[in-house]
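Saturday, quiet lab. Running sequence design on the structure tokens for the scaffold JK sent over.
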């Protein structure tokens, strides 16, 4: 469990989650035609210029310079990381339970790159549904705009691994599965591409059911030794 981590790690992940949440929100909300991110960066530059023009002390000028660099670095790093971070669980924490029957849908929050024909987009914690069809295809359908959906598909042939952990974003970590597979959305002549998507859950029972549904297909495509 994440509560078993050291106090220092928990403090760092809490800071990181709040930082990712803040940078994401200010990068996507606008005020007077510009994003809040743009306004924050602009004000940081104005503050540094003011410290130089009015000849503030060395410590004050240095502090405003550090603040400017920290703001730019934080936005750059958050965007590069997809405004979130997956932390792998060090111990097994899923409760006993059953997998989902075919076609039964589970409500999740989806993070990662999702597709529809000739279009793909990175999404962060968007409302989604997961289910499996009788022939073994796993489906994740994500609402990226109102009544507009993107997808990911995988099966035992393309599935590589599924890991349990937490997605760091916002005030608290979210129970999450990281699902790695070979993408089925391939252009002609393009080599197979390995992708990882993240499925986060509002409560543990749903996570357990989805995990048990997917985990049974891990390793089926690996060669077996002949006794």
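Result came back. Writing it out in full:
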């Amino acid at each position: 469990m994440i509560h078993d981590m050291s106090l220092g790690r928990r403090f760092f992940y809490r800071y990181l989650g709040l930082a990712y949440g803040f940078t994401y929100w200010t990068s996507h909300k606008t005020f007077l035609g510009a994003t809040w991110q743009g306004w924050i960066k602009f004000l940081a530059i104005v503050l540094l210029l003011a410290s130089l023009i009015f000849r503030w002390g060395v410590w004050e000028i240095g502090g405003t310079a550090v603040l400017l660099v920290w703001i730019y670095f934080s936005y750059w790093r958050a965007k590069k990381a997809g405004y979130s971070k997956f932390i792998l669980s060090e111990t097994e924490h899923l409760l006993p339970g059953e997998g989902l029957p075919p076609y039964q849908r589970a409500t999740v929050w989806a993070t990662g790159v999702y597709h529809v024909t000739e279009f793909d987009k990175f999404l962060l914690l968007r409302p989604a549904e997961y289910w499996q069809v009788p022939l073994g295809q796993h489906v994740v359908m994500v609402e990226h705009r109102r009544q507009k959906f993107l997808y990911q598909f995988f099966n035992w042939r393309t599935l590589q691994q599924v890991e349990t952990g937490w997605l760091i974003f916002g005030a608290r970590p979210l129970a999450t599965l990281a699902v790695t597979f070979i993408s089925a959305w391939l252009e002609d002549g393009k080599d197979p591409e390995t992708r990882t998507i993240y499925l986060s859950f509002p409560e543990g029972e749903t996570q357990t059911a989805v995990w048990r549904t997917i985990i049974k297909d891990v390793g089926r495509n690996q060669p077996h030794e002949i006794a």
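Notes for JK: The helical segments are 7-28, 36-53, 58-80, 204-215. DSSP finds four helices and ten strands in the chain. Ask whether to fix the surface positions before the next round.
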